[in-house]
Design goal:
Elements (H helix, E strand, L loop, with lengths): L2 H14 L4 H16 L6 H13 L14 H11 L4 H8 L4 H8 L2 H4 L8 H11 L10 H12 L4 H26 L6
Helix pairs in contact: 1-2, 1-3, 2-3, 2-8, 3-5, 3-8, 4-5, 6-10, 8-10, 9-10
This protein binds fe (ii) ion.
Length: 187
């Protein structure tokens, strides 16, 4: 694997493998899915996609959780490590994080990074939203349903996912169109 990809894997492993083994399985699944989408992007950019797949949930690690909002805690941690700014921004904004930031009153904090709204970011959202908590491939609809069930209807996360669903679905659909156009099997 490439340098940033290897680095991302080791950072994610260090923080997730022991304390959060299920989360570790999930991020490995997301990175595997991200690898499928690599041919859609320039090589250096596709390295960032795989690294972001590994690192997007690192902010859940008990030793890194600070605000309790994992995209922000993860991005801040990566910035402290001098990770590329673009990687930090991908982590900060993964899977429609701005909507959850709003619900948590953390929009100003998240606004330190910009959501790039590109095929790279769409592919990260797609990989996350089509990978189960155990790292298995699932459909977008199954993934959304599982999140709603896991958190319960009154949880902030369930409210967030209801609000974010159209934006998440659009990113998933754009990526799947690109994969189909490139002749890449993903189901
Ligand atoms: Fe995730």
């Amino acid at each position: 694997m490439n340098r940033i990809g290897n680095w991302g894997t080791e950072i994610a492993r260090h923080h997730l493998e022991k304390p959060l083994p299920r989360r570790w399985a999930h991020v490995r699944g997301v990175a595997k899915r991200a690898r499928l989408a690599r041919p859609l992007l320039q090589p250096e950019i596709s390295d960032l996609l795989v690294a972001a797949g590994m690192l997007h949930d690192v902010g859940y690690a008990p030793d890194l959780a600070n605000t309790g909002f994992h995209p922000l805690d993860g991005a801040r941690y990566l910035r402290r490590l001098d990770a590329p700014e673009r990687l930090c921004a991908l982590v900060a904004h993964h899977s429609c994080a701005w909507r959850e930031a709003e619900l948590r009153g953390l929009s100003a904090e998240l606004a330190e990074w910009v959501d790039e709204e590109t095929p790279l970011r769409d592919a990260l959202w797609w990989a996350d939203m089509t990978t189960s908590p155990d790292g298995e491939v699932v459909s977008f609809d199954e993934r959304v349903k599982e999140i709603q069930e896991r958190y319960g209807p009154d949880d902030l996360v369930a409210f967030f996912i209801r609000q974010a669903e159209p934006e998440l679905r659009a990113a998933v659909e754009r990526t799947e169109e690109r994969l189909r156009a490139a002749g890449i099997e993903f189901e």
